[in-house]
Structures are given as C-alpha cells and as structure tokens.
Amino acid sequence: MRRQGGCARRAVALLALIAAAGVASADDASYLAPAELANASGAEIYSHVCQGCHMPEAQGAAAAGHYPRLAGDPLLSSWQFVAVTVVRGRSGMPAFGRQGFEPLAFLSARLDDAEIARVINYVRSHFGNHYKETVTAADVAKIPHPGAAADR
Ligand code: HEC
C-alpha cells in the first residue's frame, strides 16, 4: 500500500510538471497559433518563426548547425530565391509552405501565402537589406508548394 501511495504522489508530481511545461510553452515567444499568425506583421512573423534560427538581428548562427545570416545577404536580391526557400525549405530549413496532411506538423509553423509574402517583404527591407519591390500572396502562390496536389 505504501508503495502505491508513493507511486500516486509521483504521478501527481509528474502531472503538475507537465501542466507547468504546458503553461510555459503557451507563453513562449516562439509559439503563435495559426489564427494569431494570420494577423501578425512581417516583423512579428520573423520574431516568432524565423528568429530562433536566424537570430534577432538576422546575423545568423553557427552552433549545432549553420544558420546563414540574412542581414546584408546578397542572395535576398532575388525574391524568388527567398520565396522558394521559405515555401519549400532547404537543407536544415523547414518548408513553411507545405500543404496537405502532415504527421509532424507541430514541429514547425505552417505559413499561408500572405504570411510568407509579409515575412519576405520584411527580411528584404530590414537588417541592412533595401529591396524595394513588394511581394504579394499571389506571387508566392506561383511557387510549387510541397504536398500540394500540383506538386505530387
Ligand atoms: C529551424 C531553423 C530555421 C528556421 C525556423 C528558419 N530558417 Fe531559414 N534557414 C535555415 C537554414 C539551416 C538555412 C540554410 C539552408 C542551406 O544550407 O541551404 C536557411 C536558409 C534561409 C535562407 C537562404 C539564405 C542563404 O543565404 O542561403 C533564407 C532567405 C531564409 N532561410 C529565410 C528564413 C525565413 C524568412 C524564416 C522564417 C519564416 C526562416 N528562414 C526560418 C534554418 C531556419
């Protein structure tokens, strides 16, 4: 009986831990629910979705992996390059434009075309980047999206 009591106490302690972790992750700056993303500006999408890897000033990082700097990155001169990278992913970078069924959807945000357009316009006009043209959701829609019927 005593053993069982101990077990139950441990289970309660474990549940409390899980609950505390749940609260912490809901408050975590990196987490935004899809409905919140829909209203988020390019800057907000950057800070919630991209900054974890590319760093707050887009200076990039080399730690467990290599995360390229987006600040003053000449490759950003091509919006198509940025759009293909964000929609389809690239090496260690998730495909944010993926569509359809996804067993591992919780691992990274999924962005719709308007959200992708906003974050592209943001990174191409901040961090020492001064590209003027504005990318629209319709532009992003032309990039083949992984998992979309047309991409299979
Ligand atoms: C999980 C980490 C991670 C997240 C989150 C992430 N990226 Fe990346 N990103 C990478 C890695 C790694 C690469 C380099 C891929 C390669 O080796 O070609 C990269 C490459 C890029 C590139 C190409 C830059 C270059 O010089 O090659 C762009 C542009 C880019 N990311 C933009 C974004 C944007 C915008 C977001 C947010 C919507 C974002 N990334 C979120 C990891 C990430």
Offer a quick outline of the entry.
The chain is mainly alpha-helical and 152 residues long. It has helices spanning 2-27, 34-38, 42-54, 79-88, 113-124, 137-141; strands spanning 61-62, 66-67. 47% of the residues lie in helices and 3% in strands.
Structure report:
By secondary structure, the chain is an all-alpha fold. The chain has two domains: about 1-30; about 30-150, Cytochrome c-like domain (Cytochrome Bc1 Complex, Chain D, domain 2), CATH 1.10.760. It contains six helices and two strands. The chain has helices at about 1-25, 35-40, 40-55, 80-90, 115-125, 135-140; strands at about 60, 65. The protein has a two-stranded antiparallel sheet with strand order 1-2. Helix 4 (about 80-90) packs across helix 5 (about 115-125). The longest helix is centred in the first third of the chain and has 26 residues, at about 1-25. It is globular and about 35 Å long. It starts with a helix and ends in an 11-residue tail after the last helix. Mean pLDDT is about 80; it is low at about 15-30.
Radius of gyration: 19 Å
Write down how many β-strands occur, each being a DSSP E stretch of 2 or more residues.
Answer: 2
Please summarize the sheet with the most strands. Answer: 2 strands, antiparallel
Give, in spatial order, the strands making up the sheet with the most strands: 1-2
Number of domains: 2
Instruction: Just give the CATH class of the largest domain.
Output: Mainly Alpha
Low-confidence runs? 14-29
